[in-house]
Write a structure and sequence with these properties.
Length: 102
């Protein structure tokens, strides 16, 4: 019975669309995050002077807000994924489960 259900779900075009869409979306977000993070690390490694430049007369350097920006970007991109997963991906999942139960 479980094998029949799994085969029915795997053959469903909506399931194939869900897997394809979710995978490509996840890989795109992963690539974007890696570019941001490794870009920041590369800047630290190869051009320290840019990040060590002082902002104003205080002790704050450019690296502090840029590093904070990487953290905020991570939170935003995670929220973006969760929002899409909770709307589009969950809806497709519900439809697939309903159709498999028939």
């Amino acid at each position: 019975m479980e094998n029949d259900m799994a085969a029915k779900i795997a053959a469903n075009p909506k399931y194939q669309k869900l897997v394809r869409t979710r995978s490509s979306f996840g890989w795109i977000l992963t690539a974007v995050m890696m570019v941001v993070y490794y870009g920041y690390i590369a800047l630290i490694a190869f051009n320290k002077e840019v990040l060590s430049a002082r902002l104003g007369e205080g002790v704050m350097t450019v690296g502090i807000p840029v590093g904070f920006g990487v953290i905020v970007f991570t939170i935003l991109i995670t929220g973006f994924y969760v929002r899409r997963a909770n709307s589009e991906f969950d809806q497709l999942t519900r439809e697939i489960v309903e159709e498999a139960g028939k």
